[in-house]
Amino acid sequence: MLKNMFKKTYTLIDSKYRTVEKGDEPNIPAGLWRKCNKCGQPIYVEDVRANYYICPKCKGYFRVHAYRRIEITCDPGSFEEWDKEMEVTNPLNFPGYEKKLAAAREKTKLSEAIITGKCTIEGHPAVIGVCDARFIMSSMGHVVGEKIVRAVERATKEKLPVIIFACSGGARMQEGIISLMQMAKTSAALKRHHEAGQLFISVFTDPTTGGVTASFAMLGDIILAEPNALIGFAGPRVIEQTIGQKLPDGFQRSEFLLEHGFVDKIVKREEMKETLALILKLHETKKMDLADIGQWGEEKEKKSRGRRNRKSAWDTVLLSRSADRPVATDYIHAIFDDFIEFHGDRNFRDDGAVVGGIVSFCGMPVTVIGQEKGKNTKDNIKRNFGMPSPEGYRKALRLMKQAETFGRPVVCFVDTPGAFCGIEAEERGQGEAIAKNLFEMSDLKVPVLSIVIGEGGSGGALAMAVANQVWMMENAIYSILSPEGFASILYKDSKKADDAARVMKITAKDLMDLGVIERIIPEEEPACEENLPVIAEEMKKAMVEFFRTFDGMTGEDLASQRYERFRRM
To answer: Which region among 214-218, 472-476, 551-555 has the lowest average model confidence (pLDDT)?
Structure first.
């Protein structure tokens, strides 16, 4: 068989292979080799198994049987299966359905298209569900829906997170409207799980389509995807036949969904267990470990106050815009541990001008969000020079509301010349997106801290600064608009920007005097890569003080304090 398939024949020697001349007859046990269905190359089966079922030649992903997925995801011996055997009926009396089910059971040795149960992942407990495409393309019939709902309900009762590896062709046609009802049923169970403050992680694998995509798979608090997985409501062939157009390369693949804001993160299969473990860890409620954190340095604070008066306002403007200043992710990595970034607004796309995710601060999980400028031309284009579009603000709000669900504090790093004012931003509702952030942030039931680290430009900055406290770096600015714009409007001459900067009261000292901010983070020298560790340490000490201040306050008290803070202005 191998001789007919390939020009050269391969044989195994000490778990390696060598080329033998055409016509030789190697002694190869059956099943050791197979042909990759992606690249067509001969591959050694054991190499594939040891490589997380990824082709060692083309790096293509094979579909993984449910029990194999559990084996590579869960801690050894920790999986406890639930509802292994359930009665299956033929609700529509569809001809031949019983025979199809029997054939699927015989082929897969499974009773249905999903396996559910409880496990630990690097010691963290979770409820897990894994779809198996071998069973009628893992279509969602009434038993699949019932197993998912039972697992979610039990997880809610036992206060456990849920992880579902989705893989499906969609609703099961042979069950008709009863299959359709499973979409609503699974979604309703997950809504109750969410309202109980419990985590749901959805993992897209290839393929995830139809009614599964349009129900439980898209409802994850966090949505992960394997690389190049097909994900969509209508399949590519259906779309092409319906609209009569050729679809672009990469359409409906994981990378496409990441770019369009529907996936938090693409995770390689060999990194999936570690990623899931970190997410579970960051969702376990913990208090700060303050043992090694000192108090704010009073002498340093006093020393820096005398120094602040020596710079002009325009000098500060230039420093706030310096290309050498650290950006949001620099502070995130310098201050926090275990940063895992999440993407997308779940509506249109992922905005590179806003970054966000979860971190650990002294052992306590925290949501961090930052407006991000680039450090070079290419990065600035990707980040749109730190000017968020509506989807950037919607991503930020999504992460804030997620933090509220799980009781995590929120820390925002503000650094933008202003919200993006392009035509497309107006078409997608820039004003509405900013207004919605102000509206929702005012009533968040968790502590919110915002720090202006560079430019704080207009409503684009305020949309991430409705906080219990607002701090500024010593050489940051916070203003109604740029000094150039101010001068152009009031002085009819943008060249008078330095005069405008002085009268606008936009420096940290000015705003501290006006009562607009609560703290100034000192810069012995203007912030840069070299002194970032020192500044980050000062900021970390101040954050400990902030968390001490607001720890123990109820959600209603936190929202009331925030309301009164702005009410006084």
So the answer is: 551-555
Using alpha carbons, select from 408, 40, 513 the residue that is nearest to residue 197: 408
* Cα dihedral sign, 105-154-363-398: positive
Question: What angle, rounded to 10 degrees, do the helices at 430-441 and 390-405 form?
Answer: 20
pLDDT, one tens digit per residue, over 55-106 is 988 999 999 999 999 999 999 999 999 999 999 999 999 999 999 999 999 9
Q: Decide if 206 contacts 167 (C-beta within 8 A).
A: yes
**Backbone phi, then psi, for 64, in 5-degree steps?**
-105, 130
Place of tokens 């559910």: 116
The closest alpha carbon to 75, from 116, 121, 141, belongs to: 121
- Whether the upstream peptide bond of residue 365 has omega within 30° of 0, thus cis, is no
At 163, phi and psi to the nearest 5?
-125, 125
E strand or H helix that includes residue 143: helix 142-157
Q: pLDDT digits over 448-462, tens only? A: 999 999 999 999 999
**Which residues neighbour 99 within 8 Å (Cβ) at sequence distance 6 or greater?**
none
Q: What is the pTM of this model?
A: 0.89
- Mean pLDDT, the chain, as a whole number? 90
CA dist., res. 311 & res. 496, Å (int): 18
At residue 342, φ and ψ (nearest 5 deg) are -115, 150
